[in-house]
Specification:
127 residues, alpha+beta, two-stranded antiparallel sheet, 52% helix, rod-shaped
Length: 127
C-alpha cells in the first residue's frame, strides 16, 4: 500500500485546472488576435490598390507627356508605359487626359472602386 502512494506522488503531469486555465488564456488571445488580423488584411488590400492607382497615374502621365492631345483610356496604353497591376487588382476604366480625368481600379477583396484624379488625389474603399 505504501508503494502505491509513493508512485502516485512521483507521477508528473498537469491537473485539469491547469489545463483549463491554459485553454482559457489561448481563447482570450485568439479573441484579441483574429479581429486585428482581419484589420491588417484590409489595410494591406487598400495599400495594394493605392499603390496600383499611383503606378497607373505615373504611367498615364508618361503617356500624356509623349502625346498631350491624346487620352490615356485603355489598360494597354498604361501597360505600354510601364504599369504592372497586382494579381488581385482589375482595371475598370480610364479617362485620363491633359485637361483632366480619372483612373478607376478595383480590388478583388474590397467592395467598391478606387480612383485617382488628374491631380493625383487617391480615393479607395474602406471595406
Amino acid at each position: 500500500m505504501l508503494t502505491k502512494m509513493r508512485m502516485n506522488r512521483n507521477q508528473k503531469g498537469f491537473t485539469l485546472i491547469e489545463l483549463m486555465i491554459v485553454v482559457a488564456i489561448i481563447g482570450i488571445l485568439a479573441a484579441i488576435a483574429i479581429p486585428q488580423f482581419n484589420a491588417y488584411r484590409l489595410r494591406a488590400f487598400r495599400a495594394t490598390l493605392t499603390s496600383d492607382l499611383r503606378n497607373a497615374y505615373t504611367a498615364s502621365q508618361a503617356y500624356l507627356a509623349d502625346d498631350s492631345t491624346a487620352t490615356c483610356d485603355t489598360e494597354a496604353k498604361l501597360t505600354a508605359y510601364g504599369w504592372q497591376k497586382s494579381g488581385s487588382v482589375t482595371f475598370v476604366s480610364s479617362t485620363m487626359a491633359a485637361a483632366g480625368g480619372t483612373i478607376t481600379l478595383t480590388h478583388a477583396n474590397l467592395t467598391g472602386n478606387g480612383t485617382i484624379t488628374n491631380a493625383g488625389v487617391v480615393s479607395v474603399p474602406t471595406s
